[in-house]
Design a protein that fits this description.
This protein is of the alpha/beta class. It is about 30% helix and about 15% strand. The termini are close together. It holds the Pfam family His_Phos_1.
Length: about 250
Amino acid sequence: MEGLPGDRPARGGQGHPWQGRGALPDHRGRRGRRPALNGTKGGRGRRVVLWRHGQTSWNLERRFQGSTDIELTETGVAQARRAARLLAALQPDAIVASDLRRAAATAGELAALTRLEVSHDAALRETYAGAWQGLTHEEILAQYGEQYAAWKRGEPVRRGGGELETEVADRAAPIVLHHADKLPDDGTLVVVSHGGTIRTTIGRLLGLESHHWEGLGGLSNCCWSVLGEGARGWRLLEHNAGTLPEPVLGDDD
């Protein structure tokens, strides 16, 4: 249930904007200086990259996946490999991922480049949406139009009889914070998850009221958002990065 990103260069055509800023050994002895966060003085300078999985066949069909375990397409694998090359330049310290196959396979591409082990956690799965799962966008509108409209208005809705968005944040955000707390100063954590879970987690970590979370917008396949640590907590530094802007038809999959 989402518009699909093309395999285009990152914004500006020069790779990721954090690349190419010096060449000093980092704490693991590799070449390349960790770029400083933009305007986030204070705190420990940590950052969290929340990365959505690559394309699946149900994305192409605009079919709501939720917690259904769907594999990546060949295009999805290629998207993950391309994005992994960009994210590896950030020299991440740790990778944590949903245990669903589409997220685990996406994380595996970055792990292969960084030689980091991936910690898999079911708490990072996509929203369980009960009867909505497996339905196309059009079928959801036809069968659950009132429920869909209430959700879009920011009302607390158990879509298909499943989880509330706040319940997704309740399980996912603490996992992200747990792994972020283990980072060194100025460290980077990559979290590989799903569109809806990423949006609710960002909303929770930014301290936004849940009815404002929809305002964050969705993530295209294999794009990411970045939270940086400042003196007053977490700040949103990038959102839906990794491709040129594209329409997002839906992202809770």
